[in-house]
């Protein structure tokens, strides 16, 4: 992407950094926050090949600022700690982003009142979690110039519905054609974490870890992620809830929906051949949203198609990374873009 400015800041709570991308002209710009993918076990904010091209094209079309942040990773951290990092990043977004951008690009100002959340796979989980944490209907919102306001979410093949056999049971799972990895790979990694903690008195912190080699083979970290899923240990690796009481629990977004949290207008996209995050997970999640009327407007009688789009498309995990936004684009892409732009920009 042209005219890139990257920031590796000393963000609170051990966040590794944030990246800010922008394009001219130098005026108020809409804001898109991309969440990092990789099982929450690996992933890099700067690894562009796994960013969906058609979503980047939306940002380029609108000259939007894109912000991406790393966070701590499983299994060294817990999901609660990852959500803490997202919380601290959100605070940084409101408190510091404008000054950071102005310092490097005089005259350029992020429009914090129009934020689009985007995430794929584990990033889809984090985008949904960010919305469940920080989205407020307009009637309830306390709006200031430094309050980021979420207008829409794009969740691409999100990793959700974790209380299912795909994540909790040990059986043969063909994940991107990978072999079945042994439990010992997981046990050895957890033992190494425990040994490092015993030696230093501190929990190891890991962020920004590649899932792929330059030759596009899966790294040891990538293979560890596959092993955790194949052996049904993913929910254990997520770590415990700090508080399991209604309104306080937050590891599973389905629980947060039951507790009354809402999403803004949202696009779900899922490949029906997905071997990593099966499409059934999104099916279940969306039925949960419908049951609890958990998208803003549903409880007030707005038609579902005004606040929700769900596209089940032929394809494996990450199938849309090379899809471009142009005149030959599939109709579902054009419809998704129109939906997103309506809610994000109007």
TrEMBL record:
SUPFAM superfamilies: alpha/beta-Hydrolases (SSF53474). This is Alpha/beta hydrolase fold-3 domain-containing protein. GO terms for molecular function: hydrolase activity. It comes from the Eukaryota. Residues 53-196 form the Alpha/beta hydrolase fold-3 domain.
